[in-house]
Structures are given as structure tokens and as C-alpha cells.
Amino acid sequence: MYIRNRRRGHSSIGRRVNTLPLRRDALDNIIGEGGDRNCIWELRMSLNAFATLCELLQIQGGLDEDGHVGIGEQVATFLIILAHHTKNRSVQVRFYRSGETISRYFHKVLCSVLRVQSILFAKADPVPEDCVDPRWKWFKGCLGALDGTYIDVTVPKSDKSRYRTRKSRISTNVLGVCNRNMNFVYVLSGWEGSASDSRVFRDAITRRNGLKIPIVDAGYTNGREFLSPYRNVRYHVNEWVQGHRAPQNRLELFNKKHSSARNVIERCFGLLKKRWAILRSPSFYPIRVQSHIIIACCLLQNFIRMNMDVDPEEDATLLQEHIPVGDDTIVDEADTIDAVESSHEWTQWREDLATEMWEIWRGEHGA
User: Fold this and answer.
1) Is there a contact between 229 and 218 (Cβ–Cβ < 8 Å)?
2) From CA 257, how far away is CA 357, in angstroms rounded?
């Protein structure tokens, strides 16, 4: 330990401090004596879920204990950085590690999480014929809801123009699909903020594991395997809150039901940003690493929902800063996302579905 003598203006060498007990105490405060409360505060998951994650990453993700830093400390450090957007220097002080050690194991755990994405991404199960959920029972066979959001990033000055959005933010355009249980089934990250939703969407559906039958917003074409609402008709959930008039025709009723189902992806993105502070402000990793971090956060959110019966983050109210930022208000013909061709078959299916909804709704309300 080097101690500076302020009077003499030079440094002297003091006794060497054994930092091993200090590291153990720092970790024990999180996953030991603090119990579930501290673990959830710091790592966003319970003690049992944390132990399960460490085992998963070790067995399936190839994360190893090299005798220098234990599995628990590696994963805990990684989660603290994601959950609180803690800077490297702060983690150095907390765990008595060098900056190089913190950085090396952060990337090591990140790679391990990405290796188990086939396990952590949810399966896209279609809405069954006997579904009774009022939000989804009309959309038989639907595999989930799709939406995009912007996440602010840090890029070199030469790349800022490509990542600048319509609102002049430096962001990456992220496309996600979740199932009706708010678990991510698909995430595409890495597109520049200036890239149109149409380009991102086209990239997603032309990949080997393309998207099929999600509910999409009014900016998308109503075509085969993608069901969009009627344009220029009331749609968003906040337009149907108490005090506003009831649906006046089958188009408005269809849009109300459609919005109620598709709102699940907006809630999913909102919870994602609320849980992981690193997604709420730009980090200073290379852009490729930032894209991987976004996917890792989605995977970990799925893991938490699968391994915790009660999730305090989900029960809490979402703040304005957690609400997804996207272009779901675009409905002009010039801005239509037409990567999927319109289909007469699907247009007729939407018409028949809207008519059936309207007839049943009128019967229930005595109209």
C-alpha cells in the first residue's frame, strides 16, 4: 500500500493489506447475510435465482473458475454493472480488484450469457383455440407482439450521423418480439438509430429464423403472418381509458382489442429499461459490445421471470424514463413499413374478425 506524506510531498511504502477477506465481505453483503433483500436490490434477483444462474452459466455457458475470481463474484460484478450502470472504478473500489480484472471478467460473463440464449429465449407458442384471456382470445395462432425501441449508445464521432435518430439522439434501433407472458422470443439489436423501422424489420424477416405472426402496430403493413390495426382510427391504450367514449364501430373495437394485446411488448421494453440502468443512458463500451449487452439484458429478464415467483420490479410503477421510445405513432402512407406485402387473404381475415368482435360486443352491451 502506497501512502502519500502530504508534508514531505513524497510516497512511502506501507504494509501490504490482505484484500481477500475484504472481497469476501463485499460479496457476502450481497449474497450472504443480506438475504434476498440485498440480492434483489443489487443483482435484481433472489438468492436462489442467482445460484441457478451461476450454475447455468458454468455448465451450459462455459463460465469457469480459474482460481483468481470465483464464479459468484464474476456473475455478481456483471449484474451490478448492468443493474446500476456502475462504472469500472466504482467496482474496483467495492471488490478490491484492478480495472483490467473487472473488464476481463465482465466480457467473460457477457459471452457466457450469450451462449445460453437458446435456453433463455422463450418459445413462441401460438395462442390456443381455447384461450380465455380477454386480451388474446381473438388472436388465435398469434405468436406474440412486435415493437421497436431506441436505446442510447456511445459511438465514435465519425459514426454519430448514422446513429442519430429523428429526435437527434444517438441511439441504436432495437426490434423485439415477446409472447403473451411478457417473455422475449426474439431480439434484433445493432442497427443504427437513423435506420428506418422498415430496414430493421426487413432484416429480421429475411434471416434464417424469421418472424412469424406477431401483432404489429399501425406503421406496418397488414400482410401474411403480420396483423396490424386499422390506420387513422383510434388505437393507443391511453385513448380508451375511463372517461373516453366507447367504440363507435367495428374498426374502433378491433383497434382497441389489438392495442390491448400489443401493449404487452411496450410493457416488456419498459420493464427491461427499469430493471437495467445501463440501458437508460449511454455506456462507453464499443458499439458491438453495447449491442450484445442489450441482448444479454433481454435474456436475463427472461431468466428472472422464469425463476422468481414474485418480481418486485414488475409490480412497481413504470416511470416516464422507462417508457419505450420508438416510432409507433407513424401512420402516414409514406412511412409505412412495407417489408411484408399486403395480402387480400389477411385483409379479409381482419375484416371478418372485426365484424365478429363487433356483433358479439353489441350483443353483450344490448346495442
Assistant:
1) yes
2) 9
Which pLDDT value is given to residue 365? Answer: 77
Which residue, among 161, 229, 223, has the nearest Cα to 198 in the 3D structure?
223
Chain center to CA of 23? 31
| pLDDT tens readout for residues 35-71 | 899 999 999 999 999 999 999 999 999 999 888 899 9
* 8 Å CB contact between 239 and 348: no
CA angle (112, 115, 121) in 5-degree steps: 115
Averaged pLDDT, 111-133: 93
With left for phi above 0 and alpha for psi between -120 and 50, is residue 301 left, alpha or beta?
alpha
166 is written with which cell numbers? 429523428
The amino acid sitting at 234 is R
Task: For residue 253, count CB atoms less than 10 angstroms from its CB and return exposed for 0-12, middle for 13-18, buried for 19 or more.
Answer: buried
| Separation between Cα atoms, residue 47 and residue 208, nearest integer Å | 38
5: enclosing H helix or E strand: strand 2-5
**Tens digit of each residue's pLDDT (9 = 90 or more) over 188-215:** 998 888 887 767 777 776 665 555 556 6
Q: DSSP 3-state assignment of 173?
A: strand
Q: How far apart are CA 192 and CA 198, in angstroms?
A: 13
pLDDT average, residue stretch 105-114? 98
Looking up cell 466480457, which residue turns up? 107
Q: What is the mean pLDDT of residues 142-156?
A: 91
